[in-house]
Amino acid sequence: MKIKLLMMSMIILSMGLTACGNGNKQQNDAQTTPAQADPQKVYQNFCISCHGNQLQGGEGPNIQKVGERLTEDEIIKRIQKGGGGMPPFQVALKEEELKVLAAWLAGLK
Ligand code: HEC
User: Fold this and answer.
1) Is 50 annotated as a binding residue?
2) Which of 60, 28, 29 is nearest to 43 (CA)?
3) Which of 105, 107, 91, 98 is nearest to 42 (CA)?
4) For 43-83, how does the pLDDT look when each residue is reduced to its tens digit (9 = 90+)?
5) 3-state DSSP call for residue 14?
6) Rounded (5°) CA angle 81-99-87
7) Which residues form the signal peptide (predicted)?
8) Burial of 76 (0-12, 13-18, 19+ CB in 10 A)
9) Most buried pick, 6, 62, 82, 102, via CB within 10 A?
10) Residue 50 near residue 86, CB atoms below 8 Å
11) Which residues line ligand 1 at a C-beta cut-off of 6 Å?
């Protein structure tokens, strides 16, 4: 009787573990697509070294009012392709990060 009980609880336990495992996997999947990237964080990580902590420029040009000159699409292309001394970020940035970053910059007027 005792052994049967033990086996039952082991079965239940292992079922519980597999269910848990699936739950974790789903959680991990959800984490790879964050709700919203923070454009200023992305900027700090990838752009600040050349465009400055106030977007005032340095090695790269001042982009404080880049939204007056370039549309969101143009900014996306600029970041993806680089050029003229700016490296391309197509690979380094997630699509989500690229989008929010470009939208933020395009709004600076
Ligand atoms: C290694 C230095 C460097 C880094 C890092 C860098 N840039 Fe640049 N960026 C430049 C240079 C230099 C130019 C000017 C290129 C030219 O004259 O065509 C430029 C140009 C630009 C322009 C066009 C400005 C205009 O008025 O036409 C935008 C927008 C821009 N960068 C955004 C970014 C963003 C966003 C990041 C981060 C993802 C970034 N840059 C990272 C050096 C850099």
Assistant:
1) yes
2) 60
3) 98
4) 999 999 999 999 999 999 999 999 999 999 999 999 999 99
5) helix
6) 25
7) 1-19
8) buried
9) 102
10) yes
11) 46-47, 49-51, 59-61, 63, 66, 69-70, 75, 78-79, 83-87, 89, 101, 105
pLDDT digits (tens, 9 = 90+) for 72-95: 999 999 999 999 999 999 999 999
What does the block give as tokens for 15?
């079922």
pTM (2 d.p.):
0.76
- The answer to whether the CB of 59 falls within 8 A of the CB of 47 is no
Superfamily of domain 39-106: Cytochrome c-like domain (1.10.760.10)
Compute, in angstroms, the gap from residue 57 CA to the centroid of ligand 1. Answer: 9
Amino acid at 83: G
- Per the CB < 8 A criterion, the answer to whether 43 and 101 are in contact is yes
DSSP string, 28-61: HHHHTS-S---HHHHHHHHTHHHH-TTS--SSSP
Two tokens at 63?
């982009």
